[in-house]
Amino acid sequence: MFSLEQLKEFLTENKADFEIISHDEPIITIEDAGKHFPLEECAPVFVVQADQSLAVLIMNAQRGQVNLKVLAAEHHYHTLQLANPKVVAQATGYKTGNIPLIGHNLPCLFDKSLTIHDYIYGGTGDELHTLKIKPEDVIRLNRMLGFVE
After folding, report:
1. Where are the beta strands (DSSP E) in 51-136?
2. Strands (DSSP E) along the chain, which ranges?
3. What is the pTM of this model?
C-alpha cells in the first residue's frame, strides 16, 4: 500500500507522465468522478476474485456493466466475480472505492478502450486526490494479465 507521497515518489522515479489533483469532495463512485472529469477518461478500479486469486479490473467508466462470465472465459478463468470488500481491504490495505490505479500490488486486466486517451483519471488510494496519468504508464507500472476488449 502506497501513501500519497510514496505514490508520487514511485511515479516520479519511474518517469510516469502524471499529475495528482486535489479536490474538496471525496470521489468514491463513478457519479462522483463525472462531476469533476470527463467520464470517458475515468478509470474506476474494481477488485475481482479470479478463481483462487485476486486481480484488479481497470475499466472505462462509460463501458457500463461488464459480463464477468464472458470476461472469465476470455482470460481462461473458471470463475470471475467482484471480490468481498473485507478480502479487498485485507489484501490491499485499501477500501473498495479507493483502490488506486497503481500501488495495489495485484495483477491487472486493463480496458483497452482507455488507451485512446492522452490521459485517464483514477484513484490514488485517497478519496480527496485523483491521479491523472497516461494510460501507457498505468499499463507499464502494473503487473498486466491482459486487456479487456
Report:
1. 53-58, 80-82, 107-111, 120-123, 129-133
2. 18-22, 45-50, 53-58, 80-82, 107-111, 120-123, 129-133, 143-148
3. 0.94
Report in angstroms the alpha-carbon separations of 105 from 24, 93, 97, 118.
Answer: 28, 10, 16, 24
Q: 69: part of which helix (H) or strand (E)?
A: helix 68-74
Give per-residue pLDDT as tens, 102-119: 999 999 999 999 999 999
129-142: b (≥16 Cβ within 10 Å) or e: bbbbbbbebbbebb
Cα 77 to Cα 14, 18, 68, 91, 102: the distances in Å are 31, 33, 10, 20, 23
